[in-house]
């Protein structure tokens, strides 16, 4: 998909049996969902009954190509059944969003050909998630992308963005579902350019006449093949899963940050499934914010809500460490971990003028350090004979650092009985004995070396912990890692 542009020209073409009736492309107007509440007149038997409540694709422009894809899909019926089951936890949410924009319900089948309904899916071109959204599309629709989050992977957030984009295309191409599909894959500007070329040559605008890539040309028949099989499963010997037309997942809002592995154990939801429902979270934990949203199977929600306080008491997540690399600043590190620079300064006794040393260990607050019950400073009560130099030797820290931590002059006299802030260095070193198991979801471009550098652990440790026999990793693969944290 490409970024759309404002278009002011008019397109007029002839309409035929397999032709497309193109209405003038309108200037871009941001599409908003309908405010009218939809009340279903019919009680649907299941999700498939709801999808085919209407027939928005009356004509098949390439019936032979569609039939070819039908045969390809049903050649391995077991694989096809598994493919269809991938949409079990997302189809209802997609249909709800499509209804909000009054879009054809059949568009809910689109992720089957985009990603196999796999939120971890990543293409070679950089498109990701159920809807294979490109980075530019993610920016247009304000999908969050930070060190902690890639919302294009998030099944719910990406669906909201993709459906809004489909609504724009549907409106731009006069509510023609076939043209909407072509524009979704090939891009609306490119499609209109090809239509203008055909018009200027006096040729009919048909799928056969449009100059499209092989992938874009096959996009419509591939979609129609999926639609044809699901609409007539018995004809093709397919056993569709009986997915109810109701919510099967729902969100829980939690105050604070959540670490995925302990939360998985707490909820009884496997780590892989927890990440699948919440694929937008790309690290071992959710971002260190005051509010976390997680999606879970609906039958587990009430019990989890009742016991959530017990989870946080048993699984506090407060700190991790970071070894400073060449050229890094406090601002770089704060941005990397999505924490406030002032919080980073507070817990590490730094000022705006502080210089960082290569391999210096900093504490990263995962939460608000001003309200936490534990600030990991090391303190020393001044006794007779203490000097900044003697304390520096004792704690292996530069005297000037002790002076800065306590707003003292380097030549000042220490007062007996005063508690001095020695800093976080020894605390950070003691954290090596306090290890935590975390989960990491492999992303496109990751390798063992990159992950080992990111978490400051040995490649051999990663391989041994995950029983890896080779260095090959796949996007979406879940790795267990042991990191230092309090």
Automatic annotation (TrEMBL):
GO terms for biological process: peptidoglycan metabolic process. Residues 320-364, 378-422, 438-481 form the LysM domain. InterPro entries: Cro/C1-type_HTH (IPR001387), LysM (IPR018392), LysM_dom_sf (IPR036779), Lysozyme-like_dom_sf (IPR023346), Transglyc_AS (IPR000189), Transglycosylase_SLT_dom_1 (IPR008258). GO terms for molecular function: lytic endotransglycosylase activity. This is LysM peptidoglycan-binding domain-containing protein. GO terms for cellular component: membrane. It holds the Pfam family LysM. The lineage of its organism: Bacteria, Pseudomonadati, Pseudomonadota, Gammaproteobacteria, SAR86 cluster. Belongs to the transglycosylase Slt family. Gene3D superfamilies: 1.10.530.10, LysM domain (3.10.350.10). Residues 326-344 form the HTH cro/C1-type domain.
